[in-house]
Amino acid sequence: MAFVGSGFVGGPVGGHRGCCVCSRRKIGRLAVRMEADVENEKAVENPLAPAVDNTKMFEAASKQDVSAIDDALDEGADATATDPNGRSILHYVAAIGAVPTITTLLEKGAEIDAQDVTGLTPLHMAAGYARQGTVEYLLDQGADPSIQNGQSQTAFDLVELLLSKEPEKKFFMKNKKHENLSNIRLMLRSVTKLVQDQSTQEDSKDNPVAAPTNEGSA
C-alpha cells in the first residue's frame, strides 16, 4: 500500500489552527484515499510474485511422479501447456494411467483430443501403454477413437499392432499386458462401431430416401 500523507492529521492544517470542521474534512478525505489505495492494491497483481514454471510439471511427468504433477497444477501450472514435441501434460498422464489427475486436467481446460507432432492423442497414449481403465475413462469423457496419428493409425490400429507383438503368456503365466490390450481392443471396437452407427443414422436423417408408393397402379 502506498503511504498516504504525513504529519499529525489533527494538527495545524491550512492555517486554520484548531478548526474542528477542517480537521474532520481532512480526516474524511484521508479515509477515502486510504480506502481507494487498499482496493487498488487488491486489484493489482504482485509484480514480485514468481512466474509459474511449467518445466517442473513436465519433469515430474517424465519421472511418472503424479504427486508432483498434482502439486504443480495446484501451484498454477498450465494444464494446456505442451512440450517441444507438442505433447500435452494430458498425454503423459494418460500414459501413466492416473485417472484422478486426468480429471483435474480436463476440469482445468486440457484438450482431450490434443495431438502431438506425431499425431498421437491421449487416447493413443493410454491404449499404447495398455492402461485399460484410463482408455475407458477417456472414452466416457468423449475422446474420439477415430482420430489417426501420422501413420494413419487410430488407437484401435495401434493396439492391434501391439497385440501382434505381445505374447499371450510369459514364463508359462498369463501376460497381464496382453490381457489389457485385448480388453482395450474390444472396448475400442465397440465404441468405434457405436460412433459409426450414430454417424450413419445422422446421414440417413439428412438424406431421407423416399419410400416407394403404388400411385398410378391399377
Topology:
Elements: H1 20-43, H2 55-62, H3 66-74, H4 89-96, H5 99-107, H6 122-128, H7 132-140, H8 155-165, E1 169-170, E2 173-174, H9 176-206
Antiparallel strand pairs: 1-2
Description:
This protein is mainly alpha-helical and 218 residues long. It has a domain at 55-203: Serine Threonine Protein Phosphatase 5, Tetratricopeptide repeat (Alpha Horseshoe), CATH 1.25.40.20. It is built from nine helices and two strands. A hairpin with a 2-residue loop joins strand 1 (169-170) and strand 2 (173-174). The chain is globular. Residues 195-218 are annotated as: Disordered. Keywords: ANK repeat, Repeat. InterPro entries: Ankyrin_rpt, Ankyrin_rpt-contain_sf. ANK repeats lie at residues 85-117, 118-150.
Quick one: CATH class of the domain at 55-203?
Answer: Mainly Alpha
Please give the radius of gyration in angstroms.
31 Å
Q: Helix content range of the residues, please? A: 40-55%
N to C succession of SSEs: HHHHHHHHEEH
Q: For the residues shown, what is the average pLDDT?
A: 80
Find the CATH topology of the domain at 55-203.
Answer: Serine Threonine Protein Phosphatase 5, Tetratricopeptide repeat
Our count of helices gives 9
| Multimeric state | single chain
Strand order of the largest sheet: 1-2
**Number of DSSP strands?**
2
Any key phrases for this structure?
218 residues; mainly alpha; Serine Threonine Protein Phosphatase 5, Tetratricopeptide repeat; 9 helices; 53% helix; disordered N terminus
Quick recap of the structure?
By secondary structure, this protein is mostly helical. It has a domain at 55-203: Ankyrin repeat-containing domain (Serine Threonine Protein Phosphatase 5, Tetratricopeptide repeat, Alpha Horseshoe).
